[in-house]
Specification:
This is Craniofacial development protein 2. This protein has 29 helices and 31 strands. With 982 residues, it is an alpha+beta fold. The longest helix has 35 residues.
Length: 982
Amino acid sequence: IGSPGRTALSDATKIDLLKRNIRIGTWNVNSMFEEGKAHNVALEMTRLKIKIMGISETRWIGSGQSTVQNKTIYFSGNVDSKHLHGVAIMIDETEKHTVKNFVPLSPRVMLLQLEAYCGTLNLIQVYAPTADKDEEEVEQFYKEIETVLKLAKNQDVTIVMGDLNAKIGQGEQDEWVGKHGLGERNERGDRLHQFCQENSMVISNTLFEHHKRHLYTWKSPQDRPDHIVRNQIDYFMIKQRYKNSVKNAKTYPGADVGSDHSLLVAEIKVRLKNIKRHARKARIDTNQLRNVNTMGDVYQEVNENLKNLKAKGDTSVEKDPEDIWMSIKSAVIEPCRKYLKPEKRQERQDWMNDEILKLMEERRTAKTKDQHMYRELKKRIRYQCRQAKEIWLKDKCREIEELQQRHDLHNLHKKIKEFTGTNRKQISYILTDNDGNIILDIESQIRQWEGYIKTLFEDQREQIEIETVEETGPTILKEEVKRAIESTKSGKALGPDEVPVDVLKLIEAQHLDAITALFNRIYTTGNIPREWLESTFVTLPKKPNAKKCDEYRTISLMSHTLKVFLKVIHRRIFQKLEDDISDTQFGFRNGYSTRDALFAYNVLVQRCLDINQNVYACFIDYNKAFDKVKHNQLIEVLKCKNLDSRDIRIIVNLYFNQIATVRVQETITDPIEIKRGVRQGCVLSPLLFNIYSEEIFARALKHDSGGIRVNGTAVNNLRYADDTILIAENMQDLQTMLDNVVTASQHFGLTLNTKKTKYMIITKSNIPPENLYVDGEQLERVNKYTYLGTNVTCTADYCSEIKIRIEKARAAFVKIKKMLCSRDLSLDLRVRMLKCYVFSVLYYGVETWTLNKECEKRLEAFEMWTYRRMQRISWTDHITNVEVLRRMNKEKEVQKEVKRRKLVYLGHIMRGSRYEILHLIIQGKIMGTRSVGRRRISWLKNLREWFNMSSADLFKAAVSKVRIAVMIANLRDGDATQRREF
């Protein structure tokens, strides 16, 4: 038997592993969220020679895999931020290579499958609802157990263990319950007995005769020597056919972890078997280039290889592009494999020390002898844990300070994320088939993904032939190649060819001739190397509890050299296509962002409500718009855009010959032909999708119908990539526009997701219900909607979004609280971290905010809340805000930053000629009549009051950067500004 840790085991140990029974425990530990609790459990596992420990009530968040000392923990908890429930299984290092599958079904039920010589050992760890929970929750719990039981085969050894919160009672009634139970059965016990009958499970810890102290699993807080209140509510159940495999089962009340439950241990006759896993392919680690010596070695060897290629004529223009590429690839990748080998992952340093472990052992000894000593040791252990953790934190903070002093921002942010746990790895997810059944074996998962990808990208397309009467397209220059390489981002995941752009950037200009020759040969022949047409999909969940394939996002990994080549093509076709994209499209365009789309919508709605004009808005959601683009129609659109024939031919050959594989764990599926959709991760895709969607809306809205008239121009849609809002003055116009968009979209292969497509009527008054339909299906009317990450409402309430942003920023603060509040880090660094990780969350969309007095007070209160916690100042200390700011050595900045950003943004759009639609929305005339009385606070009114200027003066000042800078320098608080109406 080989050691999982690749350390030699003695012959005696090998024989022992073969002969002895395996000891499996289950324990409700009353929270492993407490510092040192997981180490305590591992300590007891080692002492009692337990190889597998099921744990109930961990109170850990999320699901995944972790390591404590030499034990591996598989855990399943809540997907939200609540530290409730949770189950886990802790595996000894001698058995960790027997694990086959892990299914974190819910915070109450998980499955761990281990390889055994008899087949599979299925361990189901559970934590049942307590007595105060209703019957529906109990029934849901048993349904979850039965869900994972379906994953087990009849010949498998299946065990259900954990805290069932049920009393099965004393006395044998049938084959499912032994006669050595404890107490009297209750209603939950009847439900447990029913479960055992239905699933042929035997409760093993009722089969063996022991003293009562080895039968009870829970001790009540009211338990006293003169008033014993102890029950048996934790159980170890096994399939009836393997009943005799359990040699013993009893509790160990002397085991101590600070819980009111006793450890239940069963000895089972089963031999586990190590799984032979395929060795991972050695990957190129571009992080090694941060080492100057390593970078020098790669630089020298790559350039020398390319020099030799040119001397041998391997990059001649007469050669086939495939041959030229293979020569260049060999010249680049050999030094990479030689010098850029990944380093072995260092084990994370643990804060636990031997002194605390010794105290835990002393506390266990005192548990049954001296309760006073037990309580004292418990306090001392908590204190020692805090002290040890504090020392460990100081060391980590010292490392962060050193990185900050060296201005190593890459490793600084990496260390912060590692330290705060915001990049926790080894997270586990479940994959189900179309019927909702969980898929465990890798072959079935591969088939599921292959079927999903084939269906997603299947299309009845016709092959396109490019007319070659007259080829157009200038020769690619070395300067174009150099610019494309420099503009490609470094540090990205490698494609199938494993050639990193990080190394291409080390090539000297004089040796770029080889790559330039390759690009020109591809450009003139249209033949793209086979590896460039391949891509690998990696799957990332869209939400925490993703289970089905369509709940995952497929990210495409492609050749870096192809990305460089396509950057050259992109630069050539960009302006020709960009000129045909309308002003209402803000996505994937230089100089535009989500803030422009949000600004256009918010200001337009505010101005309409100001003159009592209702706004009818439909928020369109497409079904996988990027994956449904028809290649034939995309090419037809491009042919009408005056592109060079060689550019079109490259795009045709790229899209009509591409194949993809899916990476499932470490296994790659068979190649799949991609027949529709734009290539994710490709530099051309955003531009191609924009021009494709532009054709849809040009056809749908060509008659300029509907919309809000601003200076006589209809503003009827606002788009950010595929996120679209249709805008109208009444429901009839909105229905007409929506029908036209649906028809045009279907012609181009796109369909609306009617479940996520919503509509809203923004008004100041109550109006009769009016319905909106898509192909006869009624859409849902909503009062609020999340658009581009912000909250918009039917009353144009600006405060609701600010409240949400404050709470999100507060959550971001809590995530890194231990660093922001650590006095071992300099105040300057902590303030920088506050701005980087907290205020950046708060400021999302800040340029589009409209503030009133209430919003300003909330922002100020949140800012002071962060400062007080960073200084560890309690509200009971009665310290004023002035004193807090003095200690922070700074002034209030959030409100000033909001004012500054709004003013800067006004200047930005007023000076930019490309922002015609924004100029129109903020300055144009909208017909209507204002109500009597004071006008509502608006985006522009904020600036007028803050800077005491009229709208006309603001627009004039915004054009000048100098005047904007002066106005920012003279920013005054709202209270110090005399508010005027304009």
